[in-house]
Amino acid sequence: MVKIAGSKKLKRQMAPSYWGITRKNKRFAVTVKPGSHKKDQSIPTSVFLRDTLKIVSDLREAKYAIYNGKVSVDGVKIKSIHHGIGLMDVVELEGLKEIYRLVPSNGILLKPITIQDVDKTKKLVIVKSKTTIKNGKTQIGFHDGRSLIDDAIVNVGDTCLMQIPEQKILNVIKLEENSKGLIIQGINAGRIGDIKKIKEGTFILPKRVEIKIGEREIEIPANLVMPIGNDEPPIQIR
């Protein structure tokens, strides 16, 4: 028979460090199935419970919690141990008062932070695509895999404050000069800086952003920056 899906296992030595798994325990670890987030930018739900948060002792307990609907991501119950949890996702666990959001921090791609109950219904999402469809309507695609038909005036690279799980855009934060941006990948992941200049892409170079972090000013691809507004972020991200 033809194999139509990727492997469900991953060698532990190849797993990203931010998963928090041990390297010399067993040979394989659960991997991420294609879904809302990219495979190399997300954590499998079972690994998140067992190794990142360490609230279950083994895969068997993780499966029990997931299959019995005790784990919700962005307000939706997850029933797969391979589901990828990624940037800005909100995770709730039945029986625990803590609510988690995954954010970049101190050069780490994804780190869970505890957030207030009032913030669990809001999420920042980056606009990744904008397409005109039938009847002149606009379909917007976001970094977490969701898409939405909406009349909001947005451009690729902007950030939307979204209400979840209803998928309603509450506010649009433009990628523009003299605003603040959160770096989401690389050695500066988690740092917030002032966007000084935006350089349009060329045939060779992608669109770039000059951003000032403390006393340093660096230039990085625009897709590594999440605009968060002119003042404090609209939700807790630290």
Could you give the distance between the termini? 48 Å
| CATH hierarchy, class of the largest domain | Alpha Beta
Quickly count the helices.
Answer: 2
Strand order of the largest sheet: 5-4-7-8-9
Report the helical percentage. under 10%
In CATH, the architecture of the largest domain is: Roll
Largest sheet: 5 strands, antiparallel
The low-confidence parts are none
Shape: globular
Structural Rg: 19 Å
Q: Oligomeric form of this entry?
A: single chain
In CATH terms, the superfamily of the largest domain is RNA-binding S4 domain
CATH topology of the largest domain, which one? Structural Genomics Hypothetical 15.5 Kd Protein In mrcA-pckA Intergenic Region, Chain A
Overview of this protein structure:
Helix content is 7%, strand content 40%. It has helices at residues 45-52, 59-67; strands spanning 9-11, 28-30, 42-44, 71-73, 76-77, 84-86, 90-93, 99-105, 108-115, 122-132, 138-142, 147-149, 159-163, 168-173, 180-183, 192-199, 208-213, 216-221, 225-229. The strands form five sheets. A five-stranded antiparallel sheet has the order 5-4-7-8-9, with no helix packed on it. Strand 8 (99-105) and strand 9 (108-115) form a beta hairpin. The longest helix has 9 residues, at 59-67. The N and C termini lie far apart (48 Å). The mean pLDDT is 91.
Short description:
With 238 residues, the protein is mainly β.
